[in-house]
Amino acid sequence: MNETLVRSLSGAVFGALVIGLVYYSLWTNALLWAFVSIMAVREFKMGSKRASLATVCGFAAFVALWMCMVIGLPWQHSGAYEPSVLLSLVFTIWAADTGAYFVGRPLGRHKLMPSVSPGKSWEGLIGGAACAAVVAYFLWGAALLWVGPLIAVLGTAG
User: Fold this and answer.
1) Average pLDDT, the chain
2) 3-state percent breakdown (helix, strand, coil) of the chain, nearest 5
3) 61 and 129 assigned to the same domain
4) What is the mean pLDDT of residues 80-85?
5) Which residues pair with 117 in a beta bridge?
6) Domain that holds residue 119
7) Model-level pTM greater than 0.85?
8) d(CA 135, CA 117)
9) Whether residue 62 sits in one domain with residue 33
C-alpha cells in the first residue's frame, strides 16, 4: 500500500473515532484528550534525547492545562456541553494538516526549517493556511476567517 493511502485510511479511522468520542459525552471527550495528551508527552520524551524529568513534567502540565481550557471554556457559561465547538477546531486543524501535506508533498521546494522538521516547506504552510481558511469560512463565517491561517501557522510552529 502506498503512503498516501495508508495515511488517508488511518486518518479516516482516527477522525471517525474522534468525532464519535467527542459527540458521545463530555467524559469520553475528556478521556480522549487525556489520552492524546499522554501520547504527546510520550512522543516528546522519545524525540528529545536530553529531556529531563522536569521538562517532561512541565510539558505534561502545559498540555493538560491547555486541554482543560479547550474542553471547558466553550460551554462554561451556558452550562451545556456543545461538541460542535471543539469539532470545528479539530476540522480546521485537520484541514491545515491535510492541505499542507497535499500541497507541500508535490510542490514543496523551499524548506521551512530543515534542522527542526526537514519535511516542512513554505509551500506546504501556504497550502495548509489556505485550506484551513476555507474550512474556517464555512464553519464560522467571514468574521473568523483569520482563525484558519492562524491555526495552520501555530500548528506548523509547534
Assistant:
1) 81
2) 80, 5, 15
3) no
4) 74
5) 113
6) 82-158
7) no
8) 25
9) yes
Instruction: Judge if 1 and 63 occupy the same domain.
Output: yes
Q: Does one domain contain both 104 and 156?
A: yes
- 97's CB contacts (< 8 A; 6+ apart) are 128, 155
* Residues contacting residue 16 through CB under 8 Å, at least 6 positions apart: none
Same structural domain, 35 and 105: no
Count of other CB atoms within 10 angstroms of residue 144: 14
Distance CA 144, CA 158 (A): 22
For residue 157, name the pLDDT band (cuts at 50, 70, 90).
confident
Give the model confidence (pLDDT) of 60-77 as tens digits: 777 666 666 666 655 556
C-alpha cell at 80: 451545556
101-150 pLDDT, tens digit per residue, is 999 999 989 998 887 778 889 999 999 999 999 999 998 888 888 888 98
Total count of domains within the chain: 2
Do 105 and 61 lie in one domain? The reply is: no
Q: If we measure between CA atoms, which residue out of 98, 86, 95, 92 comes closest to residue 32?
A: 86
